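Late entry, evening session. Most of the bench is empty. Finally got around to the prediction I had been postponing all week. Sequence below, unchanged from the version circulated by S.P.
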Amino acid sequence: MTPTFCRTPLFAACSLVSAIAALPVSSVHAAGFVEDAKVTLGLRNYYFNRNYLNSTDPRIQGELQGQAEGWTQSFILDARSGYTQGTVGFGLDVLGLYSIKLDGNRGAANTQLLPIHDDGQAADDFGRTAVAAKAKLSKTELKVGEWFAVLPILRADDGRSLPQTFQGAQLTSNEIDGLTLYGGQFWKNSQRHDASREEMAFNSGTPAGLVEGDDFNFAGGEYRFNGNNTMVGAWHARLENVYQQSYVQLTHSQQVGDWVLGANLGYVTGKEEGSAKAGNLDNKVYQGAFTAKTGNNTFMVAYQKLSGDTKFMRIDGTSGGTLVNDGFTNSYDNPEERSWQIRHDYNFAGLGIPGLTLMNRYVSGDNIKTANRDNAEEWGRESELAYTIQEGSLKNLSIRWRNSDVRRDVGQDLHENRLIINYPLSIL
């Protein structure tokens, strides 16, 4: 009997699972392909509720929204083969993604849990299949197809029902100890709340709006030394005929008595590229995050400063996780914005409750420049209480409650709650 999820957009991943199971493990060339294969099915239940405050409600087809609310059940089948034996090893990775609406109608707009139809109603379900072929020679891998790519200059977002994926090609090399080199090109973008594949684009936040570019080309390298306690990274990316961006980063951690101190320093610079479809662009980011961990407590302070007339540049729909003040609800990445953060994490293992953690942070931003206002301000408070079951039949099932508030001089004021349940099942 064929499982229900194999009759949805997960069918390609199901086919790979069946193919792996059917391959004779005695085959010399297929042995690595089969023996090193890993297949997991992630069950993700996601509830999202956002209340707009202080008469800042967005409009949906002329009507004030008031509240954005939705609830989905998602299935994420991640099948990754090993490599065939030989000088060059070949493999295949497949993501089968499918999400079902449990609740949510016109109010689901702006939750980004589901696609929204032209009439403002949320889709009943959606999904897609991402397939990538891979080849490995020595310690260098070439990957071509579609997958969940996470790079400092292109971070796929996995903050809703299904992860964002990109179509493209990437070369990753680890031939030199401690040094990882990257290079490649992406040409299609599948956002976290969409089943389609769109052109790589930049949402300029100006009257130009969403600007489609040509291919997204990138190159970068990260060097780890000092017992992996120190990392230096450098990256350059181009959304052809729209923008170019460079990023340098330094991270370091150091044991000092009972404390572990850490630093994450970064500098980003960006401007227009080629025919400049989005017009003249100018953005710089200076940032630093400093952590101190002792026992079950971790403290962090961070500062992030943007300069220039353009907000932080990133492909439409991607995560702002490269920025030290990026959070659940806001990235504090407006033109000229300055922001600082204070954060505390606590692990309740110290009180005899392993798997339970609590995070609280506060971020304040000012000096925001918009078309109609200078020196605007905003602030946000975010908390996450999370628990992961440590043993038994539900081992690794995690429950996360995220509670947030945001207030702005420009934009929406909101109060938000999210409840996320993840259960990873190992199939192979």
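Two things to note before I forget:
Helices lie at 11-22, 31-35.
The chain is about 5% helix and 55% strand.
Will write this up properly tomorrow.
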